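Worked example (supplementary).
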Amino acid sequence: AQRVTQPEKLLSVFKGAPVELKCNYSYSGSPELFWYVQYSRQRLQLLLRHISRESIKGFTADLNKGETSFHLKKPFAQEEDSAMYYCALSAAGGFKTIFGAGTRLFVKA
Amino acid sequence: DAGVIQSPRHEVTEMGQEVTLRCKPISGHDYLFWYRQTMMRGLELLIYFNNNVPIDDSGMPEDRFSAKMPNASFSTLKIQPSEPRDSAVYFCASSLGTGGTGELFFGEGSRLTVL
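After joint prediction of all chains, the assembly is encoded as:
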């Protein structure tokens, strides 16, 4: 069965500090992993996909198949990064997408 | 394109009443998803459609919940009768299937409060 686990409901860091939002998944096949973000008063939107291997707004995420993890990282957090972050998984080539419970990131000045 | 459009944005109703949430996906997208967002459980997939056909409704919590997609540009999620524990934000999302990137495009959500 597919499962996405985000162990932290709330993460609070100071501006300029590194941030890591954890995501672990369970899936027997080859997954595609995503991070979505929901800023205040905005729609939930895609932040990045593991296949793209890109950095968006300074965020990166590496798929670690051995540890079944897809943690989201940023070396220097900014106040505008405060938002709700969801890790998501779909089967490679498939379209059913499931989400974790989400982590609320709060970046303090 | 205005993106995925959901209505109503807010709904307050009393226990036992019927609730109907509506969604218009992005034109050309052939997948449509309904999710429920709560503080405790995050985003739960309720059901999704491909080319207007329900593919997986295993996330629908009970028989009180039903969803339809009569055509490519419209879907409804109905709760009858509603209960206080159904209070949540319900999101609709659409995606382009084959040829797409797997990205979901979300509506602004319908916040349901059942008293």
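Two points are worth noting when inspecting this output. The mean pLDDT of chain A is 92. The CA atoms of residues 14 and 95 of chain A lie 37 Å apart.
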